[in-house]
Amino acid sequence: MALKGRHIPERTCIACRQSREKKHLIRLVHTKDGVVEVDLSAQKPGRGAYLCPKRDCWELGLRGSRLEYALRVKLTRDNRQALMSYAGELPRGD
Ligand SMILES: [Zn+2]
After folding, report:
1. Which residue has the higher pLDDT, 7 or 44?
2. HEC profile for the chain?
3. Alpha-carbon distance 33 to 15, whole Å?
4. What is the pLDDT of residue 55?
5. CA 78–ligand 1 middle distance (angstroms)
6. Residue 25 reports pLDDT greater than 80
7. What is the mean pLDDT of the chain?
8. What separation in Å is there between the alpha carbon of 84 and the centre of ligand 1?
9. pLDDT class for 7, splitting at 50, 70, 90?
10. Domains along the chain?
11. What is the average per-residue pLDDT within 21-45?
12. pLDDT grade, residue 89 (50/70/90)?
């Protein structure tokens, strides 16, 4: 009997709904300033949502209201633009 059942934290991508290990997802956080930021440390306080590190998921998440719904926030145009440009750096799907 090895160390079976060791808990690996999993989260669900809000775009493709796939569960993955938390470390394989990128966290977005709704900060107290009412802005949504990319949280690469995954430790910032505030409501969080997760997306795969691929552009398709970001576009899907940002285009509709999925992200806003998950984070209970209304994205401003600038905020959405900033997240979109971050998405532009990510590789296309897999
Ligand atoms: Zn995804």
Report:
1. 44
2. CCCCCCCCCEEEECCCCCEEEHHHCEEEEECCCCCEEEECCCCCCCEEEEECCCHHHHHHHHHCCHHHHHHCCCCCHHHHHHHHHHHCCCCCCC
3. 24
4. 97
5. 23
6. yes
7. 93
8. 15
9. confident
10. 10-87 (3.30.1230.10)
11. 96
12. very high
Query: Residue 31's Cα: distance from chain center in Å?
Result: 14
61 CA from centroid of ligand 1 (Å): 9
- Tokens (6 digits) for 20: 């993955």
Q: Would you state the structure tokens that stand for residue 92, as one six-digit string?
A: 């296309």
Distance (angstroms) between ligand 1 centre and the Cα of 34 equals 24
**Span from the CA of 1 to the centroid of ligand 1 (angstroms):** 34
How many whole angstroms from 2 Cα to the centroid of ligand 1?
Answer: 32
Alpha carbons 48 and 45: distance in angstroms, whole number: 8
| Tokens 């999993």 -> residue | 10
